[in-house]
Structure formats: C-alpha cells, structure tokens
Amino acid sequence: MSSGEAPPTPPVNPAPSRPRGIPPHREWESFENHNWGVFNAPWVGENPTIEERRAYMGFYLNWMVEGSAESERRARMKAEEAATIKFAQEGKTEVKTTIFEWAVDRIYWDIWFEDYSSIAGQPPYPWRRPEEDPNEPCSDTFARILGQRRNREQERQRQQQQQRQQQRQRQQDQCVRRRRAGSFEEPQSSQRRRLEAPAREDVVFLSAMNQILSDSFGLRCVNDQDWNMNLLRYLIPHFVDRQSRQRLYSLLEEGPVMAWYCLRSIFELGYRNSIPNSGICLCTDHMHPRHFVCVWDVNGQRTLVFKTPDT
Questions:
Q1: CA angle at residue 26 from 23 to 31, to 5 degrees?
Q2: Can you tell me the distance from the alpha carbon of 261 to that of 85, in angstroms, rounded to the nearest whole number?
Q3: Quick check: 291 and 264 in contact, CB under 8 A?
Q4: Which of 104, 137, 172 is the last residue of a domain?
Q5: How many angstroms separate the CA atoms of 302 and 78, rounded?
Q6: What gap in Å lies between CA 84 and CA 264, rounded to an integer?
Q7: Residues 37, 21: contact at Cβ < 8 Å?
Q8: What is the SS3 assignment for 241?
Q9: What is the pLDDT of residues 88-112, one digit of tens each?
Q10: Which of 246, 290, 295 is CA-nearest to residue 269?
Q11: Cα(233)–Cα(44) distance, rounded to whole angstroms?
Q12: Are residues 49 and 136 located together in one domain of the fold?
C-alpha cells in the first residue's frame, strides 16, 4: 500500500506458462525488494469460505505490497463503500452476504495494488463470483452503508430545501421593507428592466440546473456565486459522458479535501493524474484552466465546489 512515498521500481512480472492448477497470481514476484522468490503459502482453492479467502489475501497482499493495519482498515472501508455504490447503481436493495463480501474483496484487491497497477500491472484476482444461494441471509454491511448513504442524501435535500425557504423568506422580507419605505416600484428605464430580467431568470435557471444535475448524476454540488452560465455550459456535456462523470465522481468520493484541480484535467485524466493547487495541468487548457473544482467537507459530507476565475 502507498505510504506517501514514491513506490520502488517494481520487478518485471511476465506471465509465463504454468502447470495446470496453479493460479496465475502465484507466479508474480513481490514488489518488496526483501521478499525473494515466489509466494509459497498453501493455496486455499477456488471456492474458499469468506474467512479462508480473507486470511489468504492478508498473507498474499502483504507479501506483494506491505501495508499497515490502518491502511488495511481504510482500504476495507473504501471497498465496502464502493461495492455498496455498485450494487445500488444496479438497483439492488438487498445483496446476499457471500456475493457482497466477494465484491468487497475484489475491489479491495484492486485498491491494494493501485499504486503499482498503472506502472507494472497487478496480479489477477483469483476467485470467480460465487453462485448465489437464495436461502442465504442478506448482507448487514450492505444494508447499513446503503442506509447511511440514503440518510446523508435525505439530509442534503433537507438542507437545500431549508436554504431555498430561507432565501424566499429573505426576498419576501426585502419586499416588505421596500413597500413600507415607499420604494417597492423604483423608477427605472425600460432598458434597465430588460437587462435585469434575464439576470433574474439566469439565477433561477442555474439553481434549477444545479439541483437537476446533482440529483440525476449523484454528484453533490454547492450552489454559490461561482455557479454561472459558462460553467453550466461546460459541465452538461461532461456530465452526460460516462467516463468524464466517473472521473468527477472518483474525485468526490476519494480525492483530497480542499485541493483545487483544473476541471478539464479531471475530466480528461482523472484526479490521480492531475496536479492540485499548482496552476499547471496536463490538459489542453495547460496553464490556463477555465474552471476549477474542489472537494469540501460540508457538515461532514464530501461536496464538490466549482470556481471560474476572473478573466
């Protein structure tokens, strides 16, 4: 697992022919220089129990890439969250325990090797998806995380509704004050009316589009003064594109908090291949990004914030 330092130069791990019955992952050499030879712990077979599989994974993954107990805990939580999102996106409200835990371990495996996979590849996950047993109980972990996500979404919607109500109340109070002061209808030219009407319509339209995009694509966004028409025109086609949307979602779920990124770099490269807070990126807007994006912690919930610099 990553410890904040650049990983050492990984060994070359070709895929030679192997005797029948030996899983491919056991032919890989360790990424740790002090682990020589090949992994020699007993193979647990193609259909182990959850406990047998995880005990084997613990030995194997730490032999390939050493990690701390804290890194294991973080990877496990991240894998459980990702597996829950995957099944929820498939419309599942219940998942059998064996299926859910297999999916968690599959994602956990990829997370463990994420610092090496783009450089030298990674050993293949050795277990196929198990058959579903209709008599098996459903996963409590899936139900718990799904419930937490729904509660957070309901709280987000409640807060947004409360903010809209407060905004309407402030507008009503301002109207009352102007009416009492005798200036409810200030004299103004027809030209001024024509200029201000589209501006008011833009505010309503932007607020509505923020809500629609957030609800439709599951991307929690802050609606502030930097949410403007140029940004909206830029976001819509990228929200529609599945790969761009997934890269933005990865930033929301996994990226660092309070680190500004070039938005185009996120869409084109993903946050792992983008440079935060530097003013320099690798996208086609190199050194002149038009829009920025950042993850904020809003009342304990990770939320996207967009910004368009003054030009």
A1: 145
A2: 24
A3: yes
A4: 172
A5: 14
A6: 28
A7: no
A8: coil
A9: 989 999 999 999 999 999 999 999 9
A10: 246
A11: 54
A12: yes
- Same domain? 140 vs 242: no
3-state secondary structure of 76: helix
pLDDT in tens, 235-259: 778 877 888 888 888 888 888 888 8
Residue 153 lies in a domain: yes
Question: Which residue is listed with tokens 């894998």?
Answer: 79
User: Coil, strand or helix: which one is 221?
Assistant: strand
Residue 219's φ and ψ, nearest 5 degrees, are -105, 110
User: What's the gap between Cα 278 and its chain centre?
Assistant: 22
- Pairing mode of beta strands 301-307, 261-262: unpaired
Per-residue pLDDT tens for 254-310?
A: 888 888 888 888 888 888 888 777 555 656 555 556 788 888 887 778 888 888 765
Which domain range does residue 229 map to?
217-311
Query: For residues 38 and 26, is the Cβ–Cβ distance under 8 A?
Result: yes
Side-chain half-sphere exposure of 50, counting CA atoms within 13 A: 11
Tell me, yes or no, whether 53 and 153 share the same domain.
yes
How far is 83 from 71, CA to CA, in rounded Å? 18
**Residue 41: which H helix or E strand, with range?**
none
In this structure, are residues 100 and 83 in contact, taking their beta carbons and an 8 Å threshold? yes
The radius of gyration of the chain from alpha carbons, rounded to an integer in Å, stands at: 25
Structurally, the chain folds into a number of domains equal to: 2
